[in-house]
Amino acid sequence: MAEQEQLISEQILQVPYNYSAGRAASRFLAALRDEKKIYAIVCKRCNIVYCPPRSVCGRCFEGLSHWKEVGPYGVVRNFTRVEYTEDVHPATPLVPALIELDGADTLFPHLIIDTEDVKTGDRVRPVFAENRTGHILDMAGFVRVG
Amino acid sequence: MEEELLDVKIDSRFVYNYSTGTIPGYFFRMLRDEARIFGRRCPACNKVYIPPRPVCGPCFRPTSEWVEVGPAGTLVAYTVVYFSFLDPMTGKKRPVPYGYGMVRLDGADSRLQHFISESDHAKLKVGMRVTAVFAEKRTGNFSDLVHFRPVED
Q: Does A2 fall in a domain?
């Protein structure tokens, strides 16, 4: 067979969708937007402070409604560094991290903005976006503090 | 106080390419350059596959021969789509309603799924004769075959 031209099939798959954040996450996101504050939800029975907040305790299944402000400072407990990107993805490097906010018992996932030499145990604080819409990126991410 | 409930909006977009490979490559090239449809025959069971496949499903034998099929065929199943969704070929919504069906092209043993154009969808019938409508400008992908339209026999 003579040399063949190889064809490329180009696909553009789009999946736009909305979901209801629910009661707990709505209150959390509205506080980011309106107060630039981070709220956790507390299970008084298990003595666990959940951030991000959830409407039901994962351990005892109690419905939760007791709110408490946490952070804004926290500690990097784990992170990774993303170097690979595609046109549709945010620019790299990206450092997604799990942050233990002061006063919270769970780890909060977000981005570290100053991406050089991140270490577990680093102290961080959030940077809030100028235009906040009730979205998790109302916090642009976290930066290290001395 | 009334509780505010928020929506989370996700706008995900996946742009990707894949190599069609040798056999579909020939199929798309003939579609693009000559507006002709070619299937692939199995040397063991003689089935003609459209879209063409490199290996026969039941026999596991490599297919060995190109066979021109269509452009006319028979509608073997159809539906009318009223709920629009995003077409992965274009990233856009296709205007509804439109027909979508399976066509057994003359000379082929398998069925091809494609759009069926008929302004009066009540006229669509299983067993009706249809023929392929090709795009004026063809680029070597499935949209070179725009849709099938009914024909009088």
A: no
Tell whether A9 is covered by a domain: no
Q: Considering only alpha carbons, which residue of chain B is nearest residue A33?
A: B6
- How many Å separate Cα B147 from the centre of its chain? 8
Q: Which domain holds residue A75?
A: 22-144
Q: What is the ipTM of this complex?
A: 0.70
**Which two three-digit tokens encode residue A107?**
């780890």
Is position A95 within any domain? yes
**Cβ count near A19 (within 10 Å):** 10
- Min CA distance, A41 vs chain B (Å)? 16
Distance, in Å, from the CA atom of A28 to the CA atom of A34, rounded to the nearest integer, reads 10
pLDDT tens-place string over residues B98-138 = 899 999 999 999 999 999 988 788 888 999 999 999 999 98
Residue B147, token pair as written in the block: 């849709």
For A17-53, the pLDDT digits (tens) are 889 999 999 999 999 999 999 999 999 999 999 999 9
Which residues on B lie below 8 Å from A31 (Cβ)?
Answer: none
Q: By three-state DSSP, how is residue B49 classified?
A: strand
Chosen for mutation from B4, B6, B32, B93 (greatest number of chain A CBs closer than 10 Å) is: B6
CA dist., res. A53 & res. A29, Å (int): 10
Distance, C-alpha A122 to centroid of its chain: 17
Whether this prediction's pTM lies above 0.95 is answered by: no
| Three-state secondary structure call for residue B80 | strand
- Are A134 and A32 a contacting pair, CB within 8 Å? yes
Which helix (H) or strand (E) element contains residue A142?
strand A139-144
Q: Which residue of B has its CA nearest to A20?
A: B7
| Domain layout of chain B by residue ranges | 22-150
